[in-house]
Amino acid sequence: MSDRPPNPRFSRRDGPPRGKPRPAGFRRDPRERDGDGPVILYGWHTVTAALANPQRKFRKLWLTENAARRLAEENIDTRIAPEIVRPSEIDRQLGPDAVHQGMLAEADPLQGPRIDTLPQHGIVLVLDQITDPHNVGAILRSAAAFAVQAIVTTARHSPEATGVLAKSASGALELVPLVLVQNLARALTELNDRGFLTVGLDSEGDDDLAAVELRQPLALVLGAEGKGLRQLTRQTCNTVARLDMPGEIKSLNVSNAAALALYIGASRLGLMGRR
């Protein structure tokens, strides 16, 4: 194949495989964002959801013959002319562990809204330096399932909306807006000022989330694995609550905690079953 995809070589940790040269333009510090850099999308649900999103602008699309045939059978418009490649070519670009299902795309990043434009109803999630792209992707998937209005996260100390994160989100990246902020405490203060009830989730919280009087608009704030909420984040929240569980293990993976908190919040606010 003479015309090979130029840059998207990523391992499961969103970096180039060990021992391989870094592609041109690959940043050494993953916390530094390049707003103009391409977003890497792969896998059936991830790519087809992006194809269905009119806001997503594609740069390039690589498909295997089987993937192209499946898209045609399901009448899914590729929107741009794809390049048909062998599966091994996509393997070479993404690494051997990536489950790409014969689909790889480069696209422009989506533009996120500002804090002051968020709807003043429903639920917003706020992520305090959660850095694992698998966890953030899983949180996005839960957020889409519970019709979360947006996810607020920091421009630094958070994974970019590309590669592993996009694959883990399984299409939810196209459904839940991401709001990138420079200072999380300032963003929480703005949410407070706009009438949001900001509830931090922490194992040392004063009350069980199920017992807290919740109201809309609600912002649930989740901290990083291990470290939890930072002190200033805790102090800026209206209240800090915990998730009480009957078993011997009292803490959950942050993505599981997000799903449970969203279920409690949506149930208490009467949002379940709405469409």
TrEMBL record:
SUPFAM superfamilies documented for this protein: alpha/beta knot, L30e-like
Stretches for region Disordered: 1-37
Domain RNA 2-O ribose methyltransferase substrate binding: 40-113
Record keyword Transcription regulation present: no
SMART domains per record: SpoU_sub_bind
One Pfam family recorded for the sequence: SpoU_methylase
Keyword Transferase: yes
Gene Ontology molecular functions: RNA binding; RNA methyltransferase activity
Parts of the chain that traverse the membrane: none
Any single biological process term in GO: methylation
One GO CC annotation: cytosol
UniProt biased composition (Basic and acidic residues): 26-36
Keywords: Methyltransferase, Transferase
PANTHER family xref list: 23S RRNA (GUANOSINE-2'-O-)-METHYLTRANSFERASE RLMB
Entry similarity comment: Belongs to the class IV-like SAM-binding methyltransferase superfamily. RNA methyltransferase TrmH family.
NCBIfam families noted in UniProt: rRNA_methyl_3
Name the record gives this protein: 23S rRNA (Guanosine(2251)-2'-O)-methyltransferase RlmB
Organism: Rhodopseudomonas palustris (strain ATCC BAA-98 / CGA009)
